[in-house]
Amino acid sequence: MTSASISVQPGRFVLSGLVGQLKGSTLLLLPAAAFLAFIYLLPLIDLIRISLSGPTWSVYFERVFAIPLYWDSLVRTMQISVTVAFLCLLFGYPTALLIHRSRGITQVLIATAIVLPYFIAILIRTYAWMVLLGRNGPVNKLLISVGILSEPAQLLFTRGTVLLCMTAVLLPLMVLSIYSSVARLDQNLTRAALASGAGPIAVFWRVLLPLTLPGIGAGFLLVFVTALGFFITPTLLGGPGDQMFAMHITQQADSVTSEGFLQALGVVLLAITLAVVAVAGRFLGFEFIWGGGKLSEAAPARAAAAASGAGPGRRTVGTLLADMIGWPLLRLLGRLPASCGVWTVRGMGGLVIAVLILPIVVVMIISFSSASYLTFPPPGFSFRWYEKFFSDSNWMLAFSNSLIVAAMSACIAVTLGTSAAMGIVRSSIRGKSAIMLLLVSPVIVPPVVLGLSLYTLFLHFDLVGTIFGLAAAHAIGGLPIVVVILSAALQAVDPKLEQAAAVHGASSLTVFRKVILPAIAPGLAAATFFAFLHSFDELVLSLFLSSAQLKTLPLMLWADVNYRLNPVLAVVSTLEVLLVVGGIVLARPVLARSREAA
Amino acid sequence: MGEPVALRAGRSGESTALASQGGRLRERSLIGSSIAIREAVKNYGHFIAVDRISLDIEPGEFITLLGPSGSGKTTLLNLLAGFQKLDSGEILVDGKPIHHVPTHKRGFGMVFQSYALFPNMTVTQNVAFPLHMAGVDRATIDRRVAETLEIMRLSEHARKSPSQMSGGQQQRVAIARAIVMRPKVVLMDEPLSALDRRLRESIQIEIRDLHQTIGSTILFVTHDQGEALTMSDRIAVLDAGKIVQVGRPLDIYRHPINRFVASFVGESNLIEAEIVQKRGSTMTLKNRAGYVFNAESRDAIDVGRATVLVRPERIAVSNEATANSVPVTVTSAIFLGEILRIEARMEGGETLLIRCTDTANRPLPAAGDRLHVNWGAEDCWVLA
Predict the structure, then answer these.
(1) Does B187 touch chain A (CB under 8 A)?
(2) Which of A189, A486, A553, B201 is the residue whose CA sits 20 to 30 A from B127?
(3) What tens digit of pLDDT does each residue of A278-305 get?
(4) B160 and B34, same structural domain?
(5) Cβ of B184 under 8 Å from any chain A Cβ?
(6) B207 CB-near residues (< 8 Å, 6+ apart)
(7) HEC string of A126-137?
(8) CB B341 within 8 A of CB B327
(9) What total number of domains does chain B contain?
(10) Spatial contact of B326 and B292, defined as CB atoms under 8 Å apart
(11) Does residue A516 have a pLDDT over 50?
(12) In Å, how far are A58, A62, A512 from A66, measured between CA atoms?
């Protein structure tokens, strides 16, 4: 009897310690929240303050909307963004279905072809398109050899090019978003519909489409919002008539204009973005920003809202219209042979993969070119551009700067993000969704606006052109990546495991080291890699916050792309692709192990 | 969308009339289709899921495909539904080959283990879905859905969404959706295995009654032998992609064809013995310990070694030795309510499982007790 009472005593003690620790996990949210408040919220608030600081509060905004240049550009930005979002949807849906329907190695290959470009810098992918569509590029050569063109045509600097390239850059976002909602469906739903006498088209229209609508909505909005703030691609590929709003902000920032007006431009872009996200979040739930990972706290309320709002049985005007117009149209299509649908999916999916992968392959081949200018196919192969890159001290300095900044940035993001993710998953405070929203919101703020707002802060604290400042700024964008990946990883860890370890006498630090850390190690590795990559690829913030003394690799690339296209850029691009591929290959054993454990 | 209706309704005058009148569900006006599976083969790479299976199913029959997981029963059902394509062989429904007819034109009803109710539709919309797909007019749809919901006792849930219902209710909606077209064939893929035991038993009876009412041919897949025995007209036992035995539940239980069927269906004692003598369908055997007993058999078996099946409930237990009784030592005895489950070892090492009803004058045996067991020739069955 005595031995029993003794053994109960420490158990109770550990349990009460555990309760204390759970309460303490709210504290884990503090570092990240403080970091974001200082370096992210404060500058944005300051930006808004400056934009309102004119003689009357609205004077700068009146100027923005009075000048046709800006108004036209705003309308154009909206048009381009909506078009790009629609194009992404059109090509992304079949691609997502293709991934879902293929099996085994084919599925892995297709998924890799979609995901890989997503992790390669936008600047590099845009550069690849410039190479592809250039005067001596493969597209022109092909068109001439086939006989469609008699001499090289100007394919760059048109609206079509901007749309094509922005669509290609943003497509992975759409595909992943739709795929995640398609993959979640019970496969038997399709079978049940087929067994109920629904043809493939009816299955799509009555079952697949309604059930994947949230994924479509999320993908559409993510693409739209990202496109609104797009800067790199339209600058490099657009003509004078394709100026997007974000480009005006950078131009105004370069030329010394009156303070306030510049900030007003930024606030307009920010306001539009946030308004779109707010409206979307109202209907979809804000989870769409971080890919639907619902938090335990919000789930019941959200489900109830979904049941009452978007629940079945309500025939809205939209569904009525869709039934009256869309359904008869689709039934006409139903007269086509059954294999048409399959081949449409395969054809469009194949096209998408080609469009995503080809530019990268072309750039990698060109990096080995022996020619001194950009031409494809290369007249001969050599390592001369690799030699040039590795022997050029400017490139090497930029390379090492980038590595240092990215490593520091990843450190900051992972430390703060891990702690915040623990806090989000384990603490029981209210308003978790709001905190999660704050943590991931940097993803939706247009980088140009963020850069603009940070510039003022950095000037004030004399951080412009410092490695630490740049790393901290990059960590703003790295943090959401870490938080999303790690909170998913942590949610997969059964809290009972921790309790079991604690009951058997492990202290909370030991629990973390022996139980939690091994379980989330793959997630942690992935998060570190992506946070590193985010900083390594970051261009727009660096444009605002760097100095002539502190050049990063993307900045060097940016200067060179604007100055002259040469194969050195292809070398850098190839190295970046190898970095991404290498990272994924290195991560694979870790991921495989985690899957086995699960 | 004209074809499915034609295919569904065009087979007999009866069912055409039914389609035009919108169906009177309570009358047994329809007889299900006959199904003939001929030398069906389905491979997944090197794995043979369905290995030259042939099976004839009578019109209106309730047949169960019973087997452990991986035995090919679900693959066979998927081949029938058209979710997968035959590698070779053929499937005939009412004498017509169907393997080139796509799923949605086969006109079957199907019930899934995961219910597979469309979460974006209400109960009514789910049940109306097949009718919509067949292009039936709205008034008929409303009437047929109401009738079907009433049969499945779901009328008060008509406007609910599936997520608001319990598992048992959801499965009844899924069954309603499968029968609303009065299909000649209904396929059921382990429809009860996600439910708890009590619910399972009540829905088993419901499905049996329903089968009497609608008269469709029902193909029911399960790995639960109890379920198969209770519900089926006939059972086809599958193992490793082949049909091992087809027969009425009683035949399968009493006269299994081999060790696999004997041990998969019901509990069993399998005793190795040597055949001593054979007279017609009765033979005399001797087990390892030298006990001689009689057993029934099919007459195909020659002299040599054989495995004898004795069902646990056929073994009589007494405290005193009687003529032909075998002494055993109890190793465990468990009181299960209406019966006792006793494990006892025979001399020679074989363990017997015994189930006997609880009676007032017998105390619960304890491990180590000596008992005497006995069985007649009609209680033993020699396996092929």
Answers:
(1) yes
(2) B201
(3) 888 887 777 777 765 444 333 333 333 3
(4) yes
(5) no
(6) B175, B188, B191, B218, B220, B231
(7) HHHHHHHHCCCC
(8) no
(9) 2
(10) no
(11) yes
(12) 12, 6, 58
Q: Answer whether residue B260 is part of any domain.
A: no
Using CA atoms, how far apart are residues A30 and A26, in angstroms rounded to an integer?
Answer: 8
pLDDT at B22 over 60: no
Q: Is residue B358 part of a domain?
A: yes
Domain of residue B363 covers 267-383
Q: How far is A155 from chain B (nearest CA, A)?
A: 46
CATH number for B196 = 3.40.50.300
Q: In chain B, which residues have their Cβ closer than 8 Å to the Cβ of A196? A: 104, 109-110, 129-130, 133, 177, 181
What residue spans define the domains of chain A?
A: 12-43+382-598
Q: Of B254, B279, B295, which residue sits at a domain end?
A: B254
Partners of A199 on chain B (C-beta within 8 Å) are 1, 102, 104, 133
Domain end (from B254, B289, B319): B254
**Residue the block writes with tokens 């005793």:** B271
Check CB contact of B122 with chain A, cutoff 8 Å. Answer: yes
Asked if residue B104 is part of any domain, the answer here is yes
One-letter amino acid identity for A348?
A: M
If asked whether residues B177 and B28 sit together in one domain, one would say: yes
Q: Is residue B259 part of a domain?
A: no
Lowest mean pLDDT among A80-84, A232-236, B42-46, B298-302: B298-302
Residue pair B14/B30 in contact by the 8 Å Cβ criterion:
yes
CA dist A460 and A471 (Å) reads 17
A202 at the B interface (CB within 8 A)? yes
CA distance A35 to A412: 10
Reading the block at residue B288, the tokens are: 């390892």
From B118's Cα to the closest Cα of chain A, the distance in A is 7
b/e string for B54-77 if b means 16 or more Cβ within 10 A? ebebebbbbbbbbbeeebbbbbbb
Q: Which helix (H) or strand (E) holds A591?
A: helix A567-597
Query: Is A312's Cβ below 8 Å from some Cβ in B?
Result: yes
Q: Which residue of B has its CA nearest to A196?
A: B130
| pLDDT tops 60 at residue A5 | no
Does B61 lie in the same domain as B207? Answer: yes
Q: ipTM for the complex?
A: 0.75
Query: What Å distances lie between residue A141 and A377, A475, A564, CA to CA?
Result: 9, 43, 21
- Identify which of B81, B83, B130 has the shortest CB distance to residue A197: B130
Is the overall model pTM greater than 0.80, yes or no? no
Q: Which residue matches tokens 């008509």?
A: B158
Write a three-state SS string for chain B: CHHHHHHHHCCCHHHHHHHHHCCCCCCCCCCCCCEEEEEEEEEECCEEEEEEEEEEECCCCEEEEECCCCCCHHHHHHHHHCCCCCCEEEEEECCEECCCCCHHHCCCEEECCCCCCCCCCCHHHHHHHHHHHCCCCHHHHHHHHHHHHHHCCCHHHCCCCHHHCCHHHHHHHHHHHHHCCCCCEEEEECCCCCCCHHHHHHHHHHHHHHHHHHCCEEEEEECCHHHHHHHCCEEEEEECCEEEEEECHHHHHHCCCCHHHHHHCCCCEEEEEEEEEEECCEEEEEECCCCEEEEECCCCCCCCEEEEEECHHHCEEECCCCCCCEEEEEEEEEECCCEEEEEEEECCCCEEEEEEECCCCCCCCCCCCEEEEECCHHHEEEEC
pLDDT at B217 over 90: yes
CATH superfamily ID and name for A12-43+382-598: MetI-like (1.10.3720.10)
Q: Which residue has the tokens 């299909």?
A: B183
Given an 8 Å threshold on Cβ–Cβ distance, is B134 in contact with A197?
yes
Among A1-5, A183-187, A283-287, A492-496, name the most confident range.
Answer: A183-187
Q: What's the confidence (pLDDT) of residue A29? A: 85
Q: Whole-angstrom distance between the N-terminal and C-terminal Cα of chain A?
A: 40
Chain A partners within 8 Å of B112 (Cβ):
188, 191-192
